[in-house]
Specification:
Helix content is about 35%, strand content about 20%. With about 200 residues, it is an alpha/beta fold. The protein has a single domain, classed as Rossmann fold (3-Layer(aba) Sandwich), CATH 3.40.50. Helix 2 (about 35-45) crosses helix 3. The chain is globular, with a radius of gyration of 17 Å.
């Protein structure tokens, strides 16, 4: 991808969810923020208060929208939902299942998913996921060449793919409500800041 404009992009993960605390396989699954997740989103809003964000794009999943609602207390910006910012349906037939139960019922699938590029029954294959995220990311940037600063609220899998396939940095560990601040400049997308994200060696 070629970036000719100068713009700050905040790529944000949603807060802790009920699926996290119930130890379920999430992915393309609808769950809500927990009380802790809402607290995390409020802390994030305080961190971004001086960011000058002018537009926010959001995954259609409830947890991402609930994170946006809390951020909207700081930014009076309309909600723009983009379907292709949703999380990968990585877990297929195991989506929403408690992990201990899934391990008993689908041990072979658990083993396959140790490689993120593998696909199981009912899941979204990696290349399709990669294509929709990279294309969507590029389209959002091109459509906002007049902005100084914008944000995208999405999911761990989406952000990992951006680091792996777009930034070419590699694998990351990412916390709830973590974010990275990037800049488009001189035909490059450059990371300026990571908060709650760690590059794995």
């Amino acid at each position: 991808m070629i970036y000719n404009l100068l713009m700050k992009i905040y790529l944000i993960r949603h807060g802790q969810t009920t699926g996290d605390t119930e130890d379920r396989f999430g992915g393309d699954y609808e769950d809500h923020l927990t009380a802790e997740g809402k607290r995390q989103a409020d802390q994030l809003a305080q961190k971004l208060i001086t960011s000058g964000i002018q537009k926010i794009y959001v995954s259609p999943r409830i947890r991402a929208k609930e994170t946006w609602i809390i951020l909207s207390n700081q930014f009076a910006i309309p909600l723009i939902t983009i379907e292709n910012l949703k999380e990968r349906n990585h877990y297929g037939v195991m989506t929403g299942m408690i992990k201990s139960e899934a391990k008993l019922k689908y041990p072979a699938y658990i083993e396959l998913l140790k490689d993120t590029k593998n696909t199981i029954e009912g899941g979204e294959d990696y290349e399709s996921f990669k294509k929709r995220v990279t294309n969507t990311f590029s389209e959002i940037i091109k459509e906002n060449s007049n902005l100084d600063s914008m944000a995208i609220i999405s999911h761990g899998g989406v952000i990992r793919l951006v680091f792996r396939e777009i930034l070419k940095i590699g694998e990351i560990d990412i916390n709830d409500c973590a974010f990275t601040k990037m800049e488009t400049s001189k035909n490059k997308l450059k990371v300026l800041l990571m908060d709650g994200i760690e590059i794995l060696k």
